[in-house]
Amino acid sequence: MWYKIDFKKLVMQLLPPIMRSKLLLAILWVMIVPLQYLYARFIGLKQAVDDRLNITGNVQYLEKALNDIFFLDDLQIHIETPEEERVPSFYFGNENQRANIMRTTSEEEGFVLRKNGESGIKVNFKVMVPTFLCTSLESKDNDEYHWRYLMTIRNIIKIYKPAGRTFSIELYDYE
Hints:
By secondary structure, this protein is an alpha/beta fold. The protein has a domain at 55-84 and 122-175: Alpha-Beta Plaits, CATH 3.30.70. It contains 5 helices and 5 strands. The protein has helices spanning 7-14, 22-31, 33-54, 57-69, 148-160; strands at 78-80, 102-104, 111-113, 125-130, 167-172. It is elongated, with a radius of gyration of 23 Å.
């Protein structure tokens, strides 16, 4: 979002290139320490509010519906909101930043290169399903229950999810 700021980078970018000496940058970075402290407190409070807002009536209702269908008591099936992905930027060579590398969707770091037909759709929420209900999401033959429970979970999510929201199902080991 727009409020994610790297103050050291901002100070360096706002300073004219001819004045970017190490000494002047160090002095300015010391001067912005109180601002960074206030910013860190703001982000902490914002994260606490976001966590409170992520638990809405829809989330509770969907979790309850999923757990009730399998008679689960301890919210073994639960919903998580994925974190926002930070988009990398291009820099000038004299800014001493890490170089960004073009990559395909299967590689780990750098800018994403997509082919025709590929999309970067992000999910709005993840449904965490324990492995005692489903053992594989890849193929029906690898799943111990032949996707019988997985299809029930998908159908319930499609019925109760808010319109326009996307989801993914992930497995986790329940102990």
